[in-house]
Design a protein that fits this description.
Blueprint (H helix, E strand, L loop, with lengths): L2 H17 L17 H20 L24 H16 L8 E3 L4 E3 H23 L7 H21 L14 H8 L13
Antiparallel strand pairs: 1-2
Length: about 200
C-alpha cells in the first residue's frame, strides 16, 4: 500500500472516531494525560491543519499556538467540531495524495524536515490518537494490518525524541508476536489491553 493511501486511511480513521465521539463526552478524560475528549478532538483537528500546511509548504501564521483551539474551531460550538474537523481532514488527505508532496523538504512549524518523514509521522499520530479517542468514548476500533505497520514504524521513529520532550510515556511491554498496531501502542506508552483492537 502506498504512503499516500496509508495517510488517507489514517485520516479517515481519525475522522470517523471524531464523528463517533458524542459531544456529551467532551469533558471526559482520555489516555492522553491532561487531555479531555474535547482537547483530543482539537488536537487531531489541529494536526489535520498542520499536515495540510506541511503539504502545501505554507508557513504557520504567527498567531497559531499549540495551547489554542485549532483556528477553524475557535468560533464554532462543540457540536460543529466533528464536521469542521472532517472537512479539514479531507483537505489534508487530498493534499498528501500527490506523490510529489512527499518529495523534498517541508516543515511542521520549525526547521526544515523531509516531507516523507512528516507524512509518515502524521500517519502514525492520527492512528494512535484515534485509538486514544476510541478508548475514551467507548468506540470499537479496527486497524488494517498495513496501517498498523505504518503506525509502528512512525512511533518507533519518534519515541526517543518524544520521551526526552515528555510527550511520550515509558514504553509498555507488548509481546513481540503481537500485531503491529498493538506494538505501536506499547512503543508510544499506551497499553493495548485498555481496548480490544480488531486486527482487521
Amino acid at each position: 500500500m502506498s504512503e499516500q493511501s496509508l495517510f488517507s486511511d489514517a485520516v479517515d480513521l481519525a475522522v470517523a472516531t471524531i464523528r463517533g465521539a458524542a459531544v456529551e463526552r467532551y469533558a471526559d478524560p482520555t489516555p492522553c494525560t491532561d487531555y479531555t475528549v474535547a482537547d483530543l478532538v482539537n488536537h487531531l483537528a489541529f494536526g489535520f491543519l498542520l499536515a495540510h500546511h506541511a503539504a502545501t509548504r505554507e508557513p504557520w501564521p504567527e498567531a497559531w499556538g499549540a495551547e489554542d483551539r485549532a483556528p477553524f474551531l475557535r468560533d464554532l460550538p462543540e457540536r460543529e467540531w466533528a464536521a469542521a474537523a472532517g472537512k479539514e481532514g479531507a483537505a489534508a488527505a487530498a493534499a498528501w495524495a500527490d506523490p510529489q508532496v512527499w518529495e523534498g523538504e517541508s516543515h511542521l512549524g520549525g526547521g526544515p524536515m523531509p516531507a516523507a518523514v512528516i507524512g509518515a509521522m502524521m500517519t502514525g499520530e492520527f492512528v494512535v490518537h484515534a485509538w486514544d479517542l476510541a478508548v475514551a468514548t467507548g468506540q470499537p476500533f479496527t486497524v488494517a494490518p498495513a496501517l498498523g505497520e505504518a503506525a509502528l514504524e512512525a512511533m518507533t521513529g519518534m519515541a526517543g525524541m518524544g520521551r526526552e520532550a515528555g510527550w511520550i510515556g515509558a514504553e509498555v511491554p507488548v509481546d513481540a508476536g503481537a500485531p503491529a498496531f498493538e506494538r505501536a501502542l506499547g512503543v508510544s506508552g499506551r497499553d493495548p489491553a485498555r481496548l480490544p483492537v480488531s486486527r482487521g
